[in-house]
Design goal:
The chain has helices spanning 40-44, 55-70, 73-80; strands spanning 2-4, 23-25. It is mainly alpha-helical. Strands 1-2 form a two-stranded parallel ribbon. The model has no long low-confidence stretch (mean pLDDT 83).
Amino acid sequence: MLVLDRAGWHIRYQVEVPEGIHLFFLPPYSPELQPAERLWPVTNEPIANRSFKSLDELEVVLFHRCRRLLQQQDLIRGLTFFHWWPACGC
C-alpha cells in the first residue's frame, strides 16, 4: 500500500501503478494525518514573496531557517505533536 496526499501529480490518471501496489489517498485537508504539513508555513516564511538569483541563494536562506527552527523545538512540537501519534522513542 502506498499512502498519498491529493497533490495533482499523485492523482493523474496516466500514472501507471505497478501490479501489487495499492494506492490509498488521504482525505483532503487532513494535516493531522501528515504532521509535517503543518511545518510548511514556518519553513516557507523567509522565502515567501521573494525572488532569488540562484538556487544556491535559496538553499542558503532555507538552511539558516532550518537551523533557527532546530532551536525552536517547542514551536515544532506544538505544530506536529498529536496526543494520539505514536512516540518514536527518539
